[in-house]
Amino acid sequence: xxxxxxxxxxxxxxxxxxxxxxxxxxxxxxxxxxxxxxxxxxxxxxxxxxxxxxxxxxxxxxxxxxxxxxxxxxxxxxxxxxxxxxxxxxxxxxxxxxxxxxxxxxxxxxxxxxxxxxxxxxxxxxx
Length: 127
Fold this sequence. Notes:
alpha+beta
């Protein structure tokens, strides 16, 4: 794959990376042309609070980038240490990556992050 800057193409590439995680308790709450959200629909207790669900990851096409919202990094900030610099420099705030272009390397890094986050949620009993 060559470098892509078309936001719609980026969105669909990232959505394709996320789609395999839509399994078991993880469901797509929103699956539209410009937005895609994955939630674990499982009753859990997080920091003493009962919850009916936990946000996992999502995508939104914004004006100048595709927002990749990745909640596992919010849950465990140590995850940032496993990200390679190319992905880490896209992190704005605590859990939103601003993706303006993508290539094979970045796609691999996002796929790795998704697997790592999924494993973290599984270990915590959230999926």
